[in-house]
Amino acid sequence: MSEHVLNNIRTRRVVREMTDEAVEREAVETILEAARWAPTGGNLRPIRYVVVEDPETRRLIRLVAPGMFQKAPVLILICINWAIIEQHKLPHTDRTSLIDVGGAAQTMMLAAHAIGLASGPVTSFSKEAIKVILNLPGSYSPEMFICIGHKAEVARAGMRGWKKITWRDLTHWERFDNE
Amino acid sequence: MSENWVLTETEAVELLALLISSARIQMDEPAHYGPLRLLTATERLSAMMLERSSDKSKAFLQDSIERIPEMHMAMSDVETYKDGLDHLCREVAGCLLRHSGAESASP
Q1: Could B24 and A126 be called an inter-chain contact, meaning their C-beta atoms sit closer than 8 Å?
Q2: Considering only Cβ atoms within 10 Å of each terminal Cβ, which end of chain A, N or C, has fewer?
Q3: Domain span including residue A154
Q4: pLDDT tens-digit profile, chain B (107 residues)
């Protein structure tokens, strides 16, 4: 069973080209339910999600999101609700909620992959324009879109990696020497 | 102006939105993403104008612009990326000459 989970982690890819095929509402709800289990600093749960399926709204979003190459049938916007942070007397410089965004994003992308869907994160968008288009409450800060859909047969390649890396390249054991 | 319009006002505003958003997000992104954003806008403009464009532009839009996604793959290889952009510059210069009529006038 654990190998199944690890395989899911190893085989997930960022997908930048998707088909027009619709995504079932049940699948979207499965992904959102998985995100509910993502870790959250201090158990504050400041993360909120906005799901966009309407074609015209998705089209407008792409126009202010130069990093959104996908024409995904479902967009899930991850927001931080700063009102919750303020309720707990934490400053806006607190980075915990941004870490929560990353945890939620990865959890959703793994959940999507587990049920046979493609996904891709997008942070290159105008936050101010997105607030207007989605009429977000003032305390909501849009942080990242997760595009959900079906992978196209001929997919747009990702940016080629700078070099092949292994986990060993990324890891240091114990204390750093002074050298 | 005797030439046909290739963009509607709505399409032009959509392109403005993309360019303005690109300018803003570029403030937070690595400098080498600049060409990527400009080329993304180029792709979208090309897609908008393709259907109404004349033969003077059509081949350029279909053949050269549609190769831009392949160019993005080479972003980490700066020299290849530059070569791709130089090629595109030569192609667009040829397109300019066709529009100006200078191409047919040259010996």
Answers
A1: yes
A2: C
A3: 2-170
A4: 457 889 999 999 999 999 999 999 999 999 888 998 999 999 999 999 998 999 889 888 988 888 887 777 777 788 888 888 898 999 998 898 988 887 655 44
Q: Where are the alpha helices (DSSP H) in chain B?
A: 9-26, 33-49, 55-59, 68-72, 78-100, 102-105
Asked if the structure places residue A114 within a domain, the reply is: yes
Task: Tell me the domain boundaries of chain B.
Answer: 9-105
Question: Is residue B105 packed enough to be buried (19+ CB in 10 Å), middle (13-18) or exposed (0-12)?
Answer: exposed
Enclosing H/E stretch for A169: helix A167-170
Amino acid at B104: S
ipTM of the complex: 0.75
Is residue A130, in this structure, part of any structural domain at all?
yes
CB B18 to CB A66 under 8 A?
Answer: yes
pTM: 0.86
Distance from CA of A158 to the nearest CA of B (A): 6
- Count how many domains chain A has: 1
- What beta strand segments (E) does chain A contain? 47-52, 74-81, 118-122, 140-149
